[in-house]
Amino acid sequence: MKLLITQTGLPRVSWGSVITGVILSLIVYLVLTVLGTAIGMSALAPLSRYNPLEGYGFSSGAYLIVMTAIAVFAGSYFAGRCAPVLGWLHGLLAWAVMILLVIYGATSLFGTAVSAAGNVASTGATVGATMDRSGTGNTMAGALTQRVQGAIASATAEASSPQAQADARQTADAAARNVARASWFSFAALIVGAIIAIVSGHAGFRHQPPFEEAAGVSTADVPPRRDPTRATLSGRAVR
């Protein structure tokens, strides 16, 4: 058995190790995302297949699971390898920070898309108002307004029928089932990801170099005597 000896005590959490694992996880995730996109677009072949999207959703989901597992394992492993103590905790923290960053990026992307759609709608309304003021598009605007009003009246009449109400209930039931399935899938994926992070962080911690000392001076394999009266001396067994 060999010991890691310091004169100032070991920190319980090293955020440098956590950030290292997070950066590595994101890089691996990015590389695998680009690779998966290249493979998926190459295999799509819309000209040679009648339904090129058949089975594409399942393949994409499976690849997403494998890609996330690899990224989590790589980041958590090196977070645990760089950790001074508690490698499993550093792996778990690296996984948690990565998940938060991915969620933040996804919500930011969604917000950007919604904002762009709002800008397009606002631009269209401005163009329509300008045409109305200039008088060049009154005829077309009137015809378009009549068509829209007729479509709304027809849709209102169809929505009030019993068949439309039954279809709406079936659609709502299918949507609820899909949301529940996605929620359970996300919950299971988070649990599995946490387990992978803990295991890989612990594995990385166990594969650290056999012996290091804060002062950078090597010592013999025989562990030194520890004085219980010195509170500043800390030791950790390294297997």
Could you describe the 3D structure shown?
Residues 214-239 are annotated as: Disordered. The chain crosses the membrane at residues 21-44, 56-78, 85-106, 184-205. Keywords: Membrane, Transmembrane, Transmembrane helix. This protein has one domain. Helices cover 72% and strands 4% of the residues. The protein has 5 helices and 2 strands. It has a two-stranded antiparallel sheet with strand order 1-2. The protein is elongated. Residues 216-239 have low confidence and may be disordered.
Q: How do the strands line up in the largest sheet?
A: 1-2
Report the biggest beta sheet as strand number plus sense, adding barrel if it closes: 2 strands, antiparallel
Instruction: Please count the helical segments.
Output: 5
Instruction: Estimate the mean pLDDT confidence.
Output: 74
Low-confidence stretches: 216-239
How much of the residues is beta strand, in percent?
A: under 5%
Tell me the radius of gyration: 30 Å
Percent range of helical residues: over 70%
Topology as a string of helices (H) and strands (E): EHHHHHE
Structural class: mainly alpha
Quote the distance from N terminus to C terminus: 7 Å
Number of strands: 2
Number of domains: 1
Overall, the morphology is elongated
Keywords: Membrane, Transmembrane, Transmembrane helix
Region (Disordered): 214-239
Transmembrane segments: 21-44, 56-78, 85-106, 184-205
